[in-house]
Amino acid sequence: MMAATQRVAVGAVATALVAGLAGCTGSGSDAEKEGAPGAKKAAPAKVAPRLIGDGSTAFTGAQPGQLKPERLKPGQRPPQFVVFSWDGAGEDSQRLFSHFRAVGRKYDVTMTYFLSGVYLLPEEKADLYLPPQHSAGRSDIGFNDAGGIRDTVRELRAAWQEGNEVGTHFNGHFCGADGGVGTWSVDEWKSEISQAKSFVKNWKSNSGLKGEQPLPFDYDKELVGARTPCLEGRENFVRAASELGFRYDTSGVNDQIWPEKDHGLWDLSLQLVPFPGKSFETLSMDYNFMINQSGTVKGDPEFHEYWGDQMRDGLVQAFDRSYDGNRAPLIIGNHFESWNGGTYMRAIEEAIAAVCVKKDVKCVSFKQLADWLDAQDPEVLAKLRTLGVGERPKGGWADFLAARPVVPADRPASSAKPVKAVGRDG
After folding, report:
1. What is the pLDDT of residue 328?
2. Helix (H, G, I), strand (E, B), or coil: what is residue 58?
3. 82 DSSP β-pair partners
4. Matching CATH number, 12-38+72-415, of 3.30.1450.10, 3.30.540.10, 3.20.20.370, 3.90.550.10
């Protein structure tokens, strides 16, 4: 069970016509039953584990359950990608990590779990954490205990073997103007990233759980993306991450359009999605729906079911306008929390059941989406970015993504019209 020192940490995020919030917390109080397992992913590669460092991690071969990225053929309609992701992923008394692993197996879905490094650091070793602009051992989401670390590592291990991604939500989750991540320099971000890696690579030594099995991946290679606390500090984080070999960031606010790169990283930010019954949109995250509905994690129980239905329907409407329109990937963020009686966890599960079973839909991790994007013709992606939210190509996909004209051998190449690379605001 996670240490009881955790508390809600929130921060402001601008949305269309509404002030939304993106926050993360530690443990909650409402227990959830583990979902029934479904179809299994591919078995782990048969490679003898090669321990790394103190044996907290190990190289076990290529990760199973991964999609093979394929370049779009001329005139081919893009698949509809959906990414479900979790901030501060850890297993506590709610058992939501294990529950959604089971949901993933049931619907053949892979997800991204953003681990908070302090969830693998016991409270008695808190002083090992040296947060930027704060005293040693300070964390706004607390630390963990041996049982919580054991449970979280068990879920991380199995999640990776099932094809899911383990990213980072960093460590102390500091928000706001007083030393929050939005005030950190590039070098301070590098320190935070280094420490997040260290807590994963040394959880056995730090916790004393020497007899446990290692995490089955090299975290220096596994870690390729992140979401910042409260969606703050993105500018300097992206600069630091680009120098450290990260491949994507999901800390900003976007419309439902095709992504582009920022400082060499794919910008896979959260998106503005419909808010059923309202004249504005909100961010594609459980926390933002909650803030706009009840303004508190314990709102009136009479409205719990309605609020969950509202979030589910908003996400499904967002899916539909991409699926039937520009086919831009849909990015969704969540927390393992029982806010408002767990209604948002129900909403997410029902959204997964509604959209991930449809034809041409791929519910994947951020890393898998980045793999697919990297495999595409940059000029094709540039053309996809000319489509607005929910905009279907005029004349259909076959015409819109038709093959580029071939320049005859007896005609100078310079006479061919170039394809203009248009950005998302173009």
Report:
1. 98
2. strand
3. 330, 363
4. 3.20.20.370
H-helix or E-strand spanning residue 207: helix 203-207
CA distance 92 to 96: 8
Taking all residues of the chain, what is their mean pLDDT, rounded to a whole number?
Answer: 88
Instruction: Give CA–CA dist 96/339, Å, rounded.
Output: 12
- Token reading at 315: 């996400």
Q: Where are the domains of the chain?
A: 12-38+72-415
Between vectors from CA 250 to CA 298 and to CA 221, what angle results, nearest 5°? 120
Closest CA relative to residue 140, chosen from 176, 96, 191: 176
Q: What is the rounded distance in angstroms from the CA atom of residue 124 to the CA atom of residue 126?
A: 6
Neighbour tally for 379: CB within 10 Å: 13
The token pair at 171 is 């460590």
d(CA 375, CA 388): 23
The span from the CA of 46 to the CA of 413, in Å, is 50
Question: What value does the mean pLDDT take over residues 350-363?
Answer: 98
Q: How many CB atoms lie within 10 A of CB 345?
A: 25
pLDDT in tens, 398-426: 999 997 644 345 544 333 333 322 222 32
pLDDT tens digit string along 100-129?
Answer: 999 999 999 999 999 999 999 999 999 999
- Structure-token pair, residue 348: 């997410």
pLDDT at 17 over 90: no
**Per-residue pLDDT at 310:** 98
Parallel/antiparallel/unpaired status of strands 248-249 and 225-226: parallel
Instruction: Give pLDDT, residue 45.
Output: 52
- Please name the residues in contact with 66: beta carbons below 8 A apart, sequence gap of 6 or more: 163, 368, 371
Q: What are phi and psi of 235, to 5 degrees?
A: -60, -50
What does the pLDDT look like over 218-252, one tens digit per residue? Answer: 999 999 999 999 999 999 999 999 999 999 999 99
- Tokens 């004209």 locate to 405
Q: Is 384 a residue whose pLDDT tops 80?
A: yes
Give the H or E element holding residue 115.
Answer: strand 112-115
Backbone angles phi, psi at 387, to 5 degrees: -85, 130
How many whole angstroms separate alpha carbon 412 and alpha carbon 203?
Answer: 62
Is the separation of the CB atoms in 165 and 366 below 8 Å?
Answer: yes
Q: Where are the alpha helices (DSSP H) in 56-173?
A: 96-107, 146-161
- pLDDT digits over 274-295, tens only? 999 999 999 999 999 999 999 9
Contact 19, 292 (CB under 8 A): no
